[in-house]
UniProtKB/TrEMBL annotation:
This is Membrane-associated phosphatase. The keyword Heme does not apply. It comes from Lactobacillus equicursoris DSM 19284 = JCM 14600 = CIP 110162. Residues 92-204 form the Phosphatidic acid phosphatase type 2/haloperoxidase domain. The chain crosses the membrane at residues 12-32, 62-85, 92-113, 133-154, 161-183, 189-211. Pfam families: PAP2 (PF01569). Keywords: Membrane, Transmembrane, Transmembrane helix. The lineage of its organism: Bacteria, Bacillati, Bacillota, Bacilli, Lactobacillales. SUPFAM superfamilies: Acid phosphatase/Vanadium-dependent haloperoxidase (SSF48317).
Amino acid sequence: MNTKENKVNYQPLLIFGGVIGIFFAFWVYLIASKNPFIKIFDTAIYNSIKNNNPVERQLTFYWTQLGNTLTITAFTVILVLFLVYQHNYVHAVFASLTMIAANACNSIIKNIIQRQRPRMDKAVHADGFSFPSGHSVGSMTLALVLIALIVVLVKKKPLKYWLIAVCVFFTLSIGFTRMYLHVHWPSDVLGGWCEGLAFSCLASWIFFRVLDKKQEKEKKE
């Protein structure tokens, strides 16, 4: 898998990641200060999601397990080991450090904000504080890490686009399950997505820049 043919215009990632990071910081402030807008935002979306169908609830419960900490961690470890096996060491460092940084930041923010979860059904159990949604952070960060890797490692465009679509669907669907099961407020999920997006974009910018410098150095040699 040769990355030389997949030239990437990565510069916009720095700006986009910075903008999302600023928005996320503002969102954290709104949550921490218990701004009335957050209650309006959450109530409007929360009340519009109907989860009365027991079959749908069960299927959603199974699907949301794909975004839990254990599953995301296991997949990340397998991914990193595969990249190391393929001698893609820069890629492996990028994937591992991005996932570690995003989830560590999420844990810190959770324990600082200490937001309580919505009132949950007895059939659904979730530990810890509510904001930001760990499932949303983990799935978004993993999805964008995979997209960055797909962009540089997959040559065939149809396959590349299909894989990217699967990644996008994965993180959006995981976030939706958290709201559908009423284990997170919508603002928790949006915050998690923004956090994961900001970390991934900034990390991807560094990743693509390192690859670019590496390729320039190889050309000179």
